[in-house]
Amino acid sequence: MNSSELKGFLTGLIIGDGHIDKGITKRALRIKSINYEFIQMIYEQLSKCTQFKLGIREIDAYTSNGVNHKMNWELVVFAHPYFAKKYHHFYDDNAHRIVSKLALNWITPYGLANWYMSDGYICLVGKEKGRIYNRRMEISTDRYSYKTVEKLCKMLFDRFGVVASIIKRGKRYRIRIKTESYATFINLIEPYMVDSMKYKLYLGYNSKPKWMDDEMWSLQQYLRSATALTGYAEGYDIV
Question: What is the reported pTM?
Answer without folding.
Answer: 0.90
